[in-house]
Amino acid sequence: MASRKFGSRKVEISTVTKIPFPNIHSAIYALAFIGLLLISLVGNAQDIKWGARAGLNFSNLDFDSFEFLDKDGIKLNVSSDGVYVGYHVGVFSQIGFTNIPLMFNPEILYSTTGGKIKIMESMNGAEINTTSENQIYGRLEVPLIVALDLSPFRVSAGPVPTFFLSNNKTLTNLLEDRVNIDISDNFDSPVLSFQIAFGMNLGKKFAIDLKYEDSFSGETGVGQGVILAKPTSQQFIFSLGYFLNQN
Fold first, then answer.
1. Are 231 and 216 in contact (CB under 8 A)?
2. Is the separation of the CB atoms in 156 and 147 below 8 Å?
3. Secondary structure of residue 30 in the 3-state scheme
4. Which residues contact 136 (CB under 8 A, 6 or more apart)?
5. For 2-6, 38-42, 107-111, which range has the lowest pLDDT when averaged over its residues?
6. What is the bridge-based pairing of β-strands 84-97 and 75-80?
7. End-to-end Cα spacing for the chain
8. What CATH code is assigned to 2-243?
9. How far apart are CA 64 and CA 42, in angstroms?
10. Nearest-CA neighbor of 215 among 15, 78, 79, 19?
11. What phi-psi label fits residue 8: left (phi over 0), alpha (psi between -120 and 50 degrees) or beta?
12. Strand, helix or coil at 105?
């Protein structure tokens, strides 16, 4: 943790920085390559299943707490404060291959994630007030998962390119009228996550999965007079799939 002065006030700075996701042009090239790879895999696949899936996300925001003074000299401590229960819905597939106990399981999902943000107010060492609200993000997620096929069970892992679509701006709304520094909802660029999962197929129509997901990229904290709010998000996921091309 370091300190920096904003005007006459000294502000403690605490940041989390992870590997940045490539810029949008690199992301487009990567997705184009993945598309060509998918076409090649499908051309050589012996068993292709696809369908719809939905489920629940249990997520929290992963960042170090940080402190600063508001316009009235009240110390504000901002921290992650618990789990947000969101949902996901979308399409998925299972692409199997002859004589190889592996499957490729791409998905396209709309997902809501986030977490509780707590702001504790204090003056002269005494707590005055505590506020806790949900910070919520709407995201487009594209899991590109490879699974070890242990029929009927699956053990899988892979990257998850994630694109932010919406933000309820809880952090901005709680702080923008109280501080003399800019608040940046820096969430427009993509992030890259990874996912590990255990699942099984139930007969010919259903697939059930338990997943853990974490981010490679993101940052939250105070620096250069700006509050950054591009989160790293951890989540546990329960998902149920229904195959539409299986009788």
1. no
2. yes
3. helix
4. 84, 86, 112, 113, 114, 167, 168, 170
5. 2-6
6. unpaired
7. 59
8. 2.40.160.20
9. 43
10. 19
11. alpha
12. strand
C-alpha closest to that of 168 among 119, 131, 134? 134
Q: Closest Cα to residue 131, out of 161, 173, 94?
A: 173
Q: Token pair 């999965």 is at which residue?
A: 209
- Residues in the chain, total: 247
Cα separation, 241 vs 92, in Å, equals 8
DSSP symbol at 214: E
Task: State pLDDT tens for residues 113-150.
Answer: 988 888 888 988 888 888 888 888 898 999 999 999 99
Q: At 158, which helix (H) or strand (E)? A: strand 153-167
DSSP structural state of residue 63: -
Answer yes or no: are the C-beta atoms of 217 and 64 closer than 8 Å.
Answer: no
Q: In the structure encoding, which two tokens stand for residue 242, read together?
A: 């229904």
Encode pLDDT of 197-206 as tens digits: 999 999 889 9
98 secondary structure, DSSP code: T
Burial (CB < 10 A; 0-12, 13-18, 19+), residue 182, is exposed
| Residue carrying the six token digits 């949902």 | 87
**How many CA atoms within 13 Å lie on the side-chain side of 191?**
25
